[in-house]
Specification:
2 helices; mainly alpha
Length: about 55
């Protein structure tokens, strides 16, 4: 893919939506993307913490 100032690169979310046909996350629902991202970070952190405690 060639890029230049006249033809900016599409956002990652646009590329993913085009490739898999479904957006990764979208504003406009009952929750904001920020709230969803915060929940995902918390869930991933908890999962890693549990896994590390189990493997000690």
């Amino acid at each position: 893919m060639s890029t230049n100032a006249a033809s900016p690169r599409p956002a990652a979310s646009d590329i993913i939506a085009a490739e898999i046909g479904d957006p990764v996350c979208d504003d406009g629902g009952a929750r904001s993307r920020g709230e969803i991202h915060t929940q995902l970070i918390d869930m991933a952190t908890a999962a890693f913490t549990r896994a590390l405690r189990t493997n000690q």
